[in-house]
């Protein structure tokens, strides 16, 4: 709005948009200074914002097609989708966010390392945002002591701080942690990440069996290349324009988009990966894949929606993984018991030998 009221701005509008009733965003036509594309975008997203609940229920497929293209409405749509307004008021009323100012510094070395990593990634982040990361991360580590601080979360926090005020970003992050499986991913045990790796590997085995066999022959485990995809929602994989597009869809649809994009990437690069050994594949994931879509994310997004994702099967895989892990824990308990028994028997033998 500031850009539009500035007469020197390219996006200035001769005349203000008028509000229509209780509308949050006006849908009136823009000035001739705006291109037809921008004008259509304003009208489209104005209607989506004003009638979000009806649009989400009746035109879900259309929303999926345009998801990630809400450049002007990022903050407002984030609030609507995640329903953070109530959370925001609750946090402010209880002063939960600001009590960290009177608390001692926690894990300073870990925080410092995280800031260095994120600053090297978000090269265009102002110093103010980097400083906010310190306060932000410590605030959450004090509010949610079980999760504490995880370096992967700093990239998500950094993206949010680039889009909205600090307090609003905090509420969005809390909502993402609670409702989008992120909290389970960032727990010290990272049990949820293990589940995602298991589900994703099963998808590769089903859809790309030849590549799966190649990975196994090279001892190239899924966690070696895909763990950062889930922990940072591709923010450490792609340049910001592509990563933010995926992140927008993630807020709209959840973790499903990470599975889709991940499998789409493997499908596109299958021929090259089959020719490489472990070291070559690592180099390919680190240096080649991040720059394959510099021209734009549309090709990747379209390919990801061609991937078959079966929610029921994913639930079944979750039960299988839980059973496997439960069995492993039982075996570990039994092994520990046998080791203790063996140690006691050795001590008894030594005692008997001394007596003898």
From TrEMBL:
Q: What is the lineage of its organism?
A: Eukaryota, Metazoa, Chordata, Craniata, Vertebrata
A Gene Ontology molecular function term for this protein is: small GTPase binding
For this UniProt record, give its keywords in alphabetical order, as a comma-separated list: Coiled coil
Composition skew (Low complexity), residue ranges:
10-29
Tell me which residues make up the Rab-GAP TBC domain: 1-254
**Coiled-coil stretches, from where to where?**
328-355
Q: Mind telling me which PROSITE patterns this protein's record contains?
A: TBC_RABGAP
Protein name as it appears in the record: EVI5 protein
């Amino acid at each position: 709005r500031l850009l539009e009221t500035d007469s020197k701005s390219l996006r200035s509008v001769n005349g203000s948009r008028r509000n229509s009733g209780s509308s949050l965003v006006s849908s009136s036509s823009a000035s001739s200074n705006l291109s037809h594309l921008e004008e259509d975008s304003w009208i489209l997203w104005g209607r989506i914002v004003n009638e979000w609940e009806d649009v989400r229920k009746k035109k879900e497929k259309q929303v999926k097609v345009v998801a990630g293209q809400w450049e002007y409405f990022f903050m407002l749509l984030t609030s609507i989708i995640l329903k953070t307004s109530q959370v925001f008021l609750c946090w402010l009323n209880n002063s939960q966010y600001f009590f960290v100012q009177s608390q001692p510094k926690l894990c300073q070395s870990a925080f410092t390392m995280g800031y260095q990593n994120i600053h090297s990634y978000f090269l265009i982040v102002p110093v103010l945002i980097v400083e906010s990361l310190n306060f932000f991360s410590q605030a959450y580590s004090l509010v949610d002591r079980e999760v504490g601080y995880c370096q992967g979360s700093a990239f998500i926090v950094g993206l949010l701080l680039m889009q909205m005020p600090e307090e609003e970003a905090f509420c969005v992050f809390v909502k993402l942690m609670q409702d989008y499986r992120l909290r389970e991913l960032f727990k010290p045990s990272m049990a949820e990440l293990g589940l995602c790796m298991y589900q994703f590997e099963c998808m590769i085995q089903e859809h790309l069996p030849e590549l799966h066999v190649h990975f196994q022959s090279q001892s190239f485990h899924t966690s070696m290349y895909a763990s950062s995809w889930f922990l940072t929602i591709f923010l450490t994989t792609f340049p910001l324009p592509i990563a933010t597009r995926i992140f927008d869809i993630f807020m709209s649809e959840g973790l499903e988009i990470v599975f889709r994009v991940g499998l789409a990437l493997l499908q596109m690069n299958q021929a090259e990966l089959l020719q490489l050994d472990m070291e070559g594949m690592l180099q390919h994931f680190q240096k080649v894949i991040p720059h394959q879509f510099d021209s734009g994310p549309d090709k990747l997004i379209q390919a990801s929606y061609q991937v078959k994702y079966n929610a029921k099967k994913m639930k079944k895989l979750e039960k299988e993984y839980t059973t496997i892990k439960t069995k492993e824990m039982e075996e570990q308990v039994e092994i520990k018991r046998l080791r203790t028994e063996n140690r006691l028997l050795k001590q008894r033998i030594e005692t008997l030998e001394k007596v003898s």
